[in-house]
Amino acid sequence: MLDLNKLCKVTLNNANLRNKNGGHIKTDTRSMLKHTATEVIEAMEAYTAYTYEMDNFQKPHFESELADIICCCLIIAGKENIDIEKAILGCIEKNRKRAEGVGDKL
């Protein structure tokens, strides 16, 4: 099983090192949220190529873009000292309750 909280530190350290080496990676939360939005758009484009063009060679590209989104979220969680595992488990529980009709909304 992956240790997501450890990955937060790893991804943040990698981003900081890239920046130190001239990569121009802004790790402040606002910049990372904007970058994440860009990654979502890129994932949508890759998914479109994969599904609508029936191009199986595009699946790895789509997978890579999804991973970019997740890594962006891990960097943000690392920067903000968020226990991402706890946050994800809370989200899963919230959505379980909603699915069972006992949550705050359907």
Give structural notes.
By secondary structure, the protein is an all-alpha fold. It has a single domain, classed as Helix Hairpins, CATH 1.10.287. Helices cover 74% and strands 0% of the residues. The protein has four helices and no strands. α1 crosses α3 and α2 packs antiparallel against α3. The longest helix is centred in the middle third of the chain and has 24 residues. The model has no long low-confidence stretch (mean pLDDT 93).
What keywords describe this structure?
single chain; 106 residues; mainly alpha; Helix Hairpins; 74% helix; 0% strand
Show unreliable segments.
Answer: none
* Number of helical elements: 4
Separation of the first and last Cα atoms: 30 Å
Structural class: mainly alpha
What is the C-level CATH assignment? Mainly Alpha
- As for the number of domains, it is 1
Query: How large, in whole angstroms, is the Cα Rg?
Result: 16 Å
Q: Helix-strand pattern, N to C?
A: HHHH
CATH fold-level topology: Helix Hairpins
The level of helicity is over 70%
Characterize the overall form: flat
Largest β sheet strand count, sense and barrel closure: none
Beta strands, count:
0
Report mean pLDDT, rounded to a whole number: 93
> Could you tell me the strand content as a percent range?
under 5%
Under the CATH scheme, which architecture would be assigned?
A: Orthogonal Bundle
